[in-house]
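User: Can you predict the 3D structure for this chain?
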Amino acid sequence: MKTVIIGATPNTSRYAYLAAEMLMEYDHEFVPVGIKKGELFGKQILDIRTKPVISDVDTVTMYIGPQHQPEWYDYIIGLKPRRIIFNPGTENYEFETLAKENNIEPIEACTLVMLRTGQY
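Assistant: Here is the predicted structure, written as structure tokens:
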């Protein structure tokens, strides 16, 4: 099962980058998806605008603000994740409600903290 990082970036000062690094460190398979070009730890960042097909998604971890999320609701719901982690600053009541309606667990938490504390 995979974790999809929405808002992936090669910028080492961003939390989405740190999440990729920590997912790799904890042996979790991840797929970086975003609008930034580049790669993360040998994985090409997939362009979200092409709505790449990704199978076996367990978790989507959000790193784009709520103002940029509505355009991707259908795409992210269509990935059929078990849960969506809304990292600090990405919380979105509307999207969380939509997730629940589609039997997806919304979690307001920090992916980095969840990994470090064994809650991932």
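The chain has a mean pLDDT of 97. The chain has four helices and eight strands.
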